[in-house]
Amino acid sequence: MTPFLAQLAELCHTERARAKWVIVPTHTLGHTLGERLALQGNGWANVRFATPLDVALPMAAPFLVERGVDPAPDGIGPALIMRLLLDLPSTVPAYFRALAEQPQMAEALWATMAELRLAGITAAALPADAFANSSKHTELQALLASYEDHLVARRLADRALVYREALLHLDVCPIQAADLRIELPTIIWTPLERRLLDSLPGARVTPRAVALPGLDVPRRMTSLAAPADTMPPAPASNSERLALLMSPAGAPLSDDTLTMFCAGGREAEVEEVFRRIAQAGGALDQVEIACAMPEQATLVWEKAQRHEWPVTIGPGIPVALTRPGRALLAFCAWVAGGLAASGLRRMLQSGDVRLGASRGSEGEGDGLTAGQAARLLARAEATWGRQTYSAALDRLIESLQGRAADPEQADEARARYAERAAQAQRLKEWTAALLALVPEQPALPLGQWLDAAVAFVKTIARKSSELDGEASVALTESLADLRALGDLARPASEALALIKSRVDDLTVGGDRARPGHLHVTTLADAGHAGRPRTFVLGLEEGGVFPALVEDPVLLDAERQRIDAALRTSEDRSAEALYRIVGQLGSLGGRVCLSFSCRDLRQARATFPSWVLLQAVRVLKPGENWTYDRLVDELGEPVSAVPSEPGRALSDAGWWLAGLRRTDATAVPAVREGFPALAQGATAEAARESDVFTAYDGLVPEAGPRLDPRVSGAAVSPTSLEDLAKCPFRYFLQRGLGLDPINDAEPDPDVWLDPMTRGSLLHGLYAAIMREIRDRRETPDPARHGPRLREMGKRALAEHRALVPPPSDGVFERETRDFLNDLDLFIKFEAEDQGRRPLGFEVAFGGATEGETLGRREPVTIDLGAGLRFKLRGRIDRIDQMADGTYDAVDYKTGGAFLPGGLEATFAGGRQLQHALYALAAAELLRARDGAARVVGSYYFPTARGRRERQIRPVSTQAQAVEVLRDLFDVLGAGAFAHTPSEDDCRFCEFDRACGREPTRRAAAKIDQTGNTILDAYRRLQAHE
Ligand code: SF4
């Protein structure tokens, strides 16, 4: 028991009925002291634990209320100061205003203002000669005066005003003359608090405190803390000898109450503490963990959650770690980043937002989970900007609805596409609602941004725990505090930075030590709960004491000249040192000190604090201790893996500890313990063999369902070419209905992706050629060039409204190239008068767009010997040549490239379009010319395509029969091998589904002729 607590116990015993006021800095501490007294068997009555504000309020409030003055809202300070600073008249010299946009500047200014106010310093009393820079003095004085005026004008009272008012009404003090009052020793109160405490009635009892040998009492403690009766430490154990930290003396005791260890990382340090707690047994509420670095408290909390240990966290958990906090930060980043779809996708993938009224664990809403929404958004290929979402999702919905109505698809697949279309519609509505929250104009009153943030937290951010609920309330209240600034118009970036700083500053879930719970606190507050076992974590060099850095607003020299009560950087260090040594000395019981020798996140070595060096001197005095010897003394750093399986806290820890010193002979045991791992190993062995197995794409059951000769479903030339390129990918896409996850960030140098560019060019080629055909004209660059350019510009403008370009420079460059390709198209058409265009975008099995050659139904191709199937598609153009033959032309708007090379005819089935379109065109032309001879060709009419034209002769169509038969036999067998060619994988987005080296493994299986099921695929590959 500390001398102060023993003194309280005595008072409770000797002054049983008398009112005893104990002045403490926080209610939490008061509760803890009261509880500790009772737990140690000291009954007490009429003890009032109160803060100075608790005492001042009943003295000041009636008089303030009578004058219509309300308490100033907590937490508005930094934002208010920012506003007041920006509103200062231009006649006041600007010193801090240039930095006012930085949220940290507002925080620093507010902290200084509050400090000045609680030191009783008014604007009028701010001495000019204290400042080296007169502009700084003038601006700071004007700011302080403006704050004082604000309080008067709004009839508000801050803490400083409450204390001042209380000092005027000592006659109504709740502490009576007959009462006892005692202050917690060594607490450095503010000057106004000190004045109040010194003026209170009641019999003052001098508190007792332990002297800390070798340590000077901090300068401000002598004037602002209560005078105390100090007594030399009388340690009864090694842990109590920590009071001698600064002056190790005397003989150590033969007990193990003070231990130390070194860990190989901060996570390992926490894990080791947990292991030691578990190993020692006993109740969790007998243990306190004190963190030298506040962020470690969060790490301990996370670990406790993982092991499901009940825990109380004194400093609380940063709101930024809760779902509502994370979601609001992601929302701010998304808005600040130009509403980029990648940002929204990450927000959805995080699981921190919900899509509907339901509050399920997946954040789902009306049949759409956040994960599904993220995938749909990726498929929609939205880019950035407000307009992109609705346009991209409309395109996706249309495409999904088209696939849902596609007769080539199986019933199950169609139902799946219809469901996805409905989900995309739901996502479109959700994004519209989300975008409606985001103010549109760049500079708007802050109130609108605050409303948006509050609405986001309330309706979109997910809450899945009590802590999330607390965070949601804390955030909305904290943002509501800023309403006083509602009419201040600020740019979006500043408004978002202000909201973000709010999130960063808030913590929730802070609690005192409670029965049944492990307690986590900071080192500065260690030991108040009086638990018999304490772990002090994070005793790293540079992490225990504040850095000796001057305040950014008031320098040390200015502080000294303004008022001796203001804290300088040296005071801050000395006070922290005194407090921490005092807390360590008061711990008692069993104490374990530790540090981590690695910061794994920053991949750097870390070193022990001098506190550890002093502690080892306390433990083993009389030896010549250095840091090197200390490190040797602490021994091998502990790791996250326990030294013995018996010390493990989880299954994973048990396995890892068990495997520490074993070799491959342990593998069977691991596989027996983890059947999924064993299954994975079996699959890998099968893939690595030269036998074609179920793990490589052998699915015989799927054959009849996907073979169009059997199923009767219509197929397109593109899908058949895809099958030839990689049967495995075909099975994933069309057999299993999988889509790749597109998580690539948009390229800041690209606006029109190849597919969009090609689709726009195809549409414009058809539109201009239809106009020319309908007017019976011939292509003429002078006449039709400007017209096509105009149509092109309009198409680009429409696309721009939907998908904003990443920059003006990219837009200009791509527009120039695009229009240049349109000019080339007309020029080439004018020069190529040997062909008569008959139809453009001629569809078979889809909307005909008025083309007389087109038809809504697929065509049936019957090549004899059972090779009969339905084909659907769209021929870019059908021309009649001078010799009366026909050409089914396929435009290629990229470079002059075809899969398998320009010289190939079929390239193992990768080039099929020419033959299939020629067959289909002959069918479509039958009514007009029963003996039509049709060739198929590829035409590259752009600058990159260099006007390449590849015509495949009619004779290739006979070969096509063999190619198609082999292709369909691959399907029929259900042999969906991976491609053996790396070229096919180059732009494939399914690579994550293919395991290691799929092409090498596939080649081994294809080369193994014993795999007869791959015969058809081998034949297919041989068609050049
Ligand atoms: S990555 Fe290669 S092997 Fe895998 S699915 Fe794509 S094309 Fe086929």
How does this model look, in words?
The protein has 1024 residues and is α/β, with parallel strands linked by helices. 47% of the residues lie in helices and 11% in strands. It contains 38 helices and 27 strands. A 6-stranded parallel beta sheet has the order 9-18-17-10-16-11, covered by helices on one side. A hairpin with a 4-residue loop joins strand 24 (873-881) and strand 25 (886-891). It is elongated and about 120 Å long. The relative contact order is 0.08. The model is unreliable at 358-363 (pLDDT under 50). Iron/sulfur cluster is lined by residues 726, 728-729, 978-979, 984-985, 988, 990-991, 994, 998.
Cα-to-Cα separation, first versus last residue: 91 Å
Largest sheet: 6 strands, parallel
**Total DSSP E strands:** 27
Record the strand order, biggest sheet.
9-18-17-10-16-11
Rg, nearest Å: 39 Å
Q: What ligands are attached or bound here?
A: iron/sulfur cluster
Mean pLDDT across all amino acids: 91
Helix content, binned percent: 40-55%
How many helical elements?
A: 38
* Broad structural category: alpha/beta
Proportion of residues in extended strands: 5-15%
Q: Which shape, going by the Cα principal axes?
A: elongated
Q: Uncertain segments of ≥5 residues (pLDDT<50)?
A: 358-363
